[in-house]
Write a structure and sequence with these properties.
mainly beta; 4-stranded antiparallel sheet; 421 residues
């Protein structure tokens, strides 16, 4: 699956095991830089170790497995973190024209990555439920870091696969969500000190957004519901991305929120779901009556989107697997409370020039066509109902016992009759 990550002057896009940086400047217009991720050296970390499932994955990834799993840009916009399927964390530096700053080895495959506010540390959440911290500057330590030999410090752990991680803007709390409907708010950096849980989703919790202005948390779940929380765990508002008829037509757990994106200046929240080509747009409103999440409009794309995000000019971007129309840009109209699509034929602004450059790079995005066209494996929890089979087998055992008793009784009766005669 391809990704779209906003950077200060453009976008960092991933497709397969490659990155492309699209940047705009008044002097040069839009420039494009392609970067191919480096694969780890063979036997670099598995020598003299028992080969488990993760080691096998790392040594022999298939073509569709060699791709980017998660990306994040640091708050200052200087660093770009990229995690791939061969369990590597790559850091790129904007000040050196996006050259590779460092590459670290990860214990497990990443599901989400984020930075602290000071750009000094990067936090990586993985599929086994752990969050590790890495220093951006190699060799930098902060007191007793507790790092292992690969520079990783374990910060917290869940008993389920983690799907997203965010830090509040003051780095006071770290919020993590998992496949088992839980959202945990922990103190940072003392993550063993749990502040609260936000409980209310009925499916996996796939995406988190932190709203600094009101210190609110927004989450999207596998049941297609979006919930607004306080950091103390109180539910303030909610909205459903799909109607009941759509949800009933899907198998339980197969339809849910894939990604949330929020623009703090306009208060607009956008959401996309697995298996759907509809983009849902909501407005987060705060009044004397309380906090509400109202749906403003829904937009239909040609195919299920890969990714969504807002840029610094409050434009809303949708990335989809369609040649010639890979990216779409929408502009929010605050008076009409609706989205208006932006085209390359309009005023030659930064957004339209970036749009043209992205849409002309289909060869780069084509490698991701067909990846994750359905719900990723492991998100759907399979409920085992073996009661029916148990009752049927029990009845067979009971019936079989009765038949044996009947046969033995008839044999004994025949023997007694023969003796009497």
């Amino acid at each position: 699956m391809a990704t779209l990550q906003h950077i200060p002057r453009g976008f960092a896009c991933s497709s397969g095991k490659k990155l492309t940086i699209f940047e705009y400047s008044d002097e040069a217009g839009v420039t494009k830089k392609e970067i191919e991720l480096e694969l780890p050296a063979e036997n670099s970390s598995t020598d003299n170790k028992q080969e488990d499932e993760d080691a096998i994955e790392k040594k022999a990834p298939s073509k569709n497995e060699e791709h980017v799993l998660a990306t994040s840009v640091s708050p200052s916009g200087r660093y770009l973190a990229v995690c791939d399927t061969v369990k590597q964390l790559h850091l790129f530096d904007a000040e050196t024209e996006w050259t590779r700053h460092s590459t670290r080895e990860l214990p497990r495959r990443c599901t989400s990555v984020t930075f602290t506010q000071d750009d000094l540390q990067v936090l990586v959440a993985d599929k086994t439920g752990d969050v590790y911290r890495y220093n951006v500057k190699e060799g930098y330590t902060e007191g007793n870091s507790g790092e292992d030999d690969k520079g990783a410090q374990l910060m917290l752990g869940h008993l389920s696969m983690l799907l997203d991680v965010v830090l509040t803007n003051d780095d006071k709390y770290i919020v993590t969500c998992d496949r088992d409907e839980k959202i945990r708010v922990s103190h940072y950096p003392n993550c063993y000190n749990i502040h609260t849980f936000c409980m209310g989703h009925k499916g996996y919790v796939s995406s988190l957004v932190y709203v600094e202005r009101n210190s609110l948390l927004i989450s999207g779940g596998g049941e297609g519901e979006i919930i607004v929380w306080t950091l103390s765990g109180e539910r303030l508002a909610g909205a459903v991305c799909v109607d009941e008829s759509q949800r009933s037509s899907q198998d339980h757990g197969d339809f849910g929120v894939k990604k949330l994106s929020y623009d703090p200046d306009t208060g607009v929240l956008a959401a996309v779901c697995y298996g759907s080509n509809i983009v849902y747009v909501f407005r987060l409103e705060n009044s004397e009556l309380g906090t509400s999440l109202k749906q403003s409009v829904s937009m239909t794309t040609d195919v299920e989107p890969w990714d969504i995000c807002f840029d610094c000019d409050h434009h809303f971007w949708v990335l989809q697997p369609k040649e010639g129309d890979c990216a779409r840009v929408y502009q929010w109209n605050n008076e009409a409370f609706m989205m208006r699509i932006l085209t390359t034929e309009e005023k030659r602004c930064r957004a339209s020039l970036l749009l043209e450059a992205i849409n002309s790079s289909w060869e780069f995005f084509e490698e991701s066509v067909g990846m994750y066209t359905h719900l990723p494996e492991g998100l759907r929890k399979v409920k085992i109902d073996n009661m029916k089979d148990y009752l049927e087998k029990k009845q067979e055992r009971v019936s079989g016992t009765k038949r044996k008793i009947d046969q033995s009784e008839s044999t004994e009766t025949a023997e007694i009759t023969q003796k009497d005669s």
